[in-house]
Design a protein that fits this description.
The chain is α+β, with helices and mostly antiparallel strands. It has 23 helices and 9 strands. The strands form 2 sheets. It has a 6-stranded mixed sheet, sandwiched between helices. A 3-stranded antiparallel sheet has the order 6-7-8.
Length: about 500
């Protein structure tokens, strides 16, 4: 998910790049029920950061009646909180302050750390906190209610919930005006620059969609006479009704809604935001200082987790190898080095590093997972058909699952091992994939693989339901939106034509 754009973020990052970074930054890790936060700051700042996020999580759950299944605590959201220079190196982008990567087993948010700017910002300004809360609102939407959302509402919901006030009594005010979006409501004074039909159906998250999506969400969420209409619209859309048709049925005269929305904006008096009382249970974070070896790895780790490929992945693995050699007795360093070699495509080196980690920490789930994945990839490289060898490789994934049955990553890796071997997954592997989907419903790759399994086993309607949120997710203009194509073919009864496209999507998902 692309983060929010603001020119000053790019300037802030560029300025920081001109400054020399400290040779040995001190990193802290804060753990809560829902987050693992790695931050280059001091202990009090790390604790405050984590506890504030827990308050936000509790407020969203209370406001929208979202469940908090303890089983999902085994798959916390990983947040890398990075100062501007490192954030820019990780992101390799300009003008962003944060972004979200949904992944079963541990979704990731990369957040710019700019506390100095945030402290002096006015209500309604764009800040690094706004961006972080926007991205976490996406996670809550996709993981708690994994249905199809049109792009305008996906972004509008995130914007509505990102503009908050944390009060000293522990309460939170949600739905403050996003003043930084005011200039994106219209283009050169023209409200018709994006036709209404295009707004409701577009799959591209343009600046105009961000602005108008926020405004329409704000209006529908807070206007008494429109209460219940948004829920009806989403229900209709998820039953297969086209977005614009669903809007007409749920909202009535859509042109009238459009005019009301802009009149609401021009009135400059937005409806009062929503107040959420303090959580019943005060937030708690366990904060630890990272070891020197893990702290040294953190910049490389962030870049690797971001999705490094090819030459960059190999470069990061080489640099990680040097650090791992300096800290041979640090199990976490060896595990994270093993993961870097997996990303770089070096399963032999990854297996050796995982062995070193397991010798130091025999019960480590991440080390067992890395070992199992490395052994699977070694067998793939060798084109092995040795059933006993495949069983031995999968044994590590089973051990990782036993270490925490609610961890999604071992379940997903176990299912993928059968595709890697070119064999039909066992019923247990399929059951594991279904459980991984429950635990990580926000991950489109898991959704695609389960959809492919259902499709191949004569459940095209079930596959269609799983693919629908992907079809509505934001796509670039040149993205052919294969999920939407598959859905159209299923609806037309052209299953033979849909099959190769479904296989293509699943093949890409298995490689990611």
């Amino acid at each position: 998910m692309r983060g929010l754009v603001r020119a000053w973020f790019g300037a802030l990052a560029a300025g920081a790049l001109a400054c020399a970074a400290p040779a040995h930054a001190e990193w802290y890790e804060a753990r809560t029920d829902h987050f693992v936060i790695d931050i280059d700051a001091d202990e009090p700042a790390a604790r405050e950061f984590a506890e504030r996020l827990e308050r936000y999580d509790a407020a969203l759950r209370r406001l929208y009646g979202l469940p908090d299944d303890p089983a999902t605590h085994a798959n916390p959201v990983r947040i890398f909180v990075l100062k501007a220079g490192l954030f820019t190196r990780v992101c390799q982008c300009g003008g962003l302050a944060g972004y979200y990567r949904p992944r079963a087993g541990g979704s990731v948010i990369f957040s710019l750390y700019a506390p100095g700017f945030d402290r002096h910002a006015k209500a309604g300004d764009m800040t690094s906190q706004v961006t972080l809360l926007h991205e976490y609102a996406h996670h809550m939407m996709y993981s708690s209610e994994p249905i199809a959302y049109p792009v305008w509402f996906s972004e509008g919901f995130a914007e509505f919930n990102a503009n908050v006030e944390f009060r000293d009594d522990g309460s939170i005010v949600i739905g403050l005006p996003a003043n930084y979006r005011a200039g994106l409501i219209r283009t050169q004074g023209d409200y018709l620059s994006m036709p209404l039909g295009e707004f409701f159906t577009t799959a591209t998250a343009s600046p105009l969609v961000y602005g108008r999506g926020w405004l329409l969400t704000h209006y529908l969420m807070l206007t008494p006479k429109r209460q219940g209409q948004l829920a009806k619209y989403l229900q209709l859309m998820n039953r297969g009704k086209p977005s614009l048709d669903a809007a007409g049925e749920a909202f009535g005269d859509v042109q009238a809604l459009w005019r009301e929305m802009f009149a609401y904006f021009e009135g400059r008096i937005l409806l009062p935001p929503l107040g959420v009382p303090p959580p019943a249970k005060p937030p708690h974070a366990t904060v630890t200082k990272l070891s020197p070896g893990v702290a040294a790895l953190m910049p490389l780790r962030a870049r690797s987790v971001n999705g490094a490929r090819g030459g960059l992945a190999r470069e990061l693995a080489r640099d990680a190898a040097k650090i791992a050699a300096d800290y041979p007795a640090d199990a976490r360093v060896q595990t994270e080095y093993a993961e870097a070699e997996l990303v770089a495509g070096h399963p032999d080196l990854a297996a050796a590093a995982a062995d070193r980690a397991l010798a130091l920490a025999p019960g480590s789930l991440p080390a067992m997972l890395a070992k199992g994945q490395a052994e699977v990839r070694r067998l793939v490289a060798a084109k092995s058909t040795d059933a006993a060898a495949w069983t031995a490789a999968r044994a590590w994934l089973i051990k990782a699952n036993h270490a925490d049955p609610n961890a999604a990553a071992p379940l997903l890796a176990y299912f993928r091992s059968f595709a890697a071997a070119g064999t039909e997954p066992t019923p247990g592997a399929v059951k594991g994939l279904r459980r991984a989907f429950v635990l990580g419903a926000e991950d489109p790759q898991v959704r695609i693989q389960l959809a492919r399994h259902l499709f191949d086993h004569d459940d095209a309607p079930g596959a269609r339901t799983l693919l629908q949120p992907i079809a509505f997710a934001p796509h670039d203009d040149d993205d052919k939106n294969v999920a939407a194509q598959v859905i159209a073919l299923i609806d037309a009864g052209k299953l033979a034509e849909a099959k190769p496209l479904m296989a293509k999507m699943a093949g890409t998902a298995e490689r990611n």
